Amino acid sequence: MDLKEYISVRRAYNVVRQMTPSEDRLTFEEFAILCRLREADCPIKTSAIAEYQGALRPTMTHRTNHLFDLDLIERAEGEVDRRNVVCSISERGCERVLELAGQTRAQIPSGRALSRTSPERIIKYVDAMGSLYCKAGDLVLLGLYCAETDSLTIMQIVDALKLLQPTVSMSVSSLSESGLVVRSHTTGGNHTTSVALTEAGVEYAQALAERIESIVVRRRPRNSEAVDEGQTQS
Q1: Looking at the predicted structure, is the pLDDT value of residue 190 above 70?
Q2: Is the pLDDT assigned to residue 231 strictly greater than 60?
Q3: At CB < 8 A and 24+ separation, what contacts does 173-179 make?
Q4: 166-186 residue pLDDT tens
Q5: DSSP states of 110-174 as a string?
Q6: Residues 114, 119, 121, 127, CA torsion sign
Q7: C-alpha pair distances (Å), 166 with each of 11, 198, 215, 227
Q8: How far apart are CA 105 and CA 24, in angstroms?
Q9: Model's pTM, two decimal places?
């Protein structure tokens, strides 16, 4: 997966999530679970989903409880071991994941990575991306790392990632305290704050980018030989 593809999908989904009523809103990780269940087309153990996302059991329980409460997944005891809960996507979940994928695709501006792909392909990307957890601060670092200039203002980061301004500001403060970014303030009437990566920040962002670029997006060939040009097949 190309880093620009990753940023493009995450940016678009941030827009979709903000447009969604709070009672129906899903985190990116919850969206990824739905994509994984839809792509698997069979029940998956909760423990296997946790392993896929690198999440602790309480975190995964919270995510699957939320999806279950929204009627997006179904749960059942394992056939061999009843202690193993298995999850499958519900009919409503199938409808919702296609809806979210279509909305995400629609929020990718023309000319950006994946702007000409299909909602079905977005599902495969989100499924693959769900294996790497990136918190808001990580996305800010990646946004700075991808920038064509040495620094960005807070509002430029907001526009690049479509995160909420308070989220970006809090992330920048935390990253500054950790020595990963440095802030500078311009004098004058607008009091603009510019943010740039430190040397440690560049190394951290580069390591994240390398992990993203190692992600494989799976696809089903159109026929026994066909593979879309420029796409990755496992």
Answers
A1: no
A2: no
A3: 174/137, 175/137, 175/140, 175/141, 175/201
A4: 999 999 999 999 999 999 987
A5: TTSTTTT--HHHHHHHHHHHTTS---HHHHHHHHHHH-SSSEEEHHHHHHHH---HHHHHHHHHH
A6: positive
A7: 16, 22, 30, 43
A8: 19
A9: 0.88
- Helix spans in the chain (H): 3-19, 28-40, 46-53, 57-69, 91-106, 119-129, 136-146, 154-161, 165-177, 199-213
First CA to last CA distance, the chain: 12
Q: By the 8 A CB rule, do 46 and 152 touch?
A: no
DSSP letter (8 states) at residue 214? T
The predicted structure's pLDDT at residue 42: 86
Contact (CB, 8 A) for 50 and 37: no
CB 29 within 8 A of CB 53: yes
Phi, psi of 86 (to 5 degrees): -115, 145
What one-letter code names the amino acid at 223? N
| pLDDT attached to residue 188 | 57
Place of tokens 């979210």: 100
Here the tokens at position 162 are: 């479509």
